Amino acid sequence: MGDIAGKFDKAYEGKSVEDLAAAPVDALKGVSEGDAQLLKEAFNITSVRDLGTNKFFLWAQAVSKLAD
Q1: What is the pLDDT along the chain (68 residues), one digit of tens a residue?
Q2: N or C, where is the chain less crowded by C-beta within 10 Å?
């Protein structure tokens, strides 16, 4: 899994990639409970999978890559 596990809080150390995808977004290092609440309210994002597959984030990522 490379360094992906290092992007998560210690409580998620040793978890499978499936478990990491299902984890709440505040399991990511640097994302607070307050941040997670705002993501839920704005985009209905509750899990890492939701964050990674959100159409707005994907669109922004695509535009950024094309601009580079």
Answers
A1: 568 879 999 999 999 999 999 999 999 999 999 999 999 999 999 999 999 999 999 999 999 999 99
A2: C
